[in-house]
Amino acid sequence: xxxxxxxxxxxxxxxxxxxxxxxxxxxxxxxxxxxxxxxxxxxxxxxxxxxxxxxxxxxxxxxxxxxxxxxxxxxxxxxxxxxxxxxxxxxxxxxxxxxxxxxxxxxxxxxxxxxxxxxxxxxxxxxxxxxxxxxxxxxxxxxxxxxxxxxxxxxxxxxxxxxxxxxxxxx
Length: 171
Known about the structure:
This protein is an all-alpha fold. It has helices spanning 3-13, 24-35, 37-105, 111-170.
């Protein structure tokens, strides 16, 4: 026990603290001598609480690992969707340019039909652009969620280490 702790006990509780150097075994023997069977019960209760806390942390770690896997899968899926949409937009742009050229170069009776086709293509492109924006938003949001989950996972791994240290100290 350090000097400050002894002084804090003295000031806060009003007890005189005598510091001595002894082995763990001697301390345990003294606890059992003065507190008897209760000392073992307290140890078991504390060990159970530590084990229970460690199990909860392990469960949450597992859940976060599953979430991180799902985020990775979602990112891959969104990247595929983005590529598909971009490809569809490129094809529509090519088709639009072709129709615009036909409308400019040839003045025939099918112009009205070509203009309707052009309008339909532009509407489809607009729809694809909106879908692309939504996919890009999801792609930008998912890494933030991944970082939050990784930070929480790191916190829990530290907490689990503390539980394991406490359990070792109890042994």
